[in-house]
Amino acid sequence: MTPTTRLARLTLAAAATGGLLTGCASPNDSLDYQTDYSNHRPLRVVGYPSTGSLETVQKAVWRLADGDADALAALAVDDSQAKATARNWVKAFGAAAKGEVTADFYDEGSVRQVVVLYFAKSGQIKEIEARIGEKDDAWGLTLAEPHLAEATAKPTWAPPEPGHSGSRTSGN
Question: Among residues 60, 67, 28, 25, which one has the least CA distance to residue 43?
Answer without folding.
Answer: 60
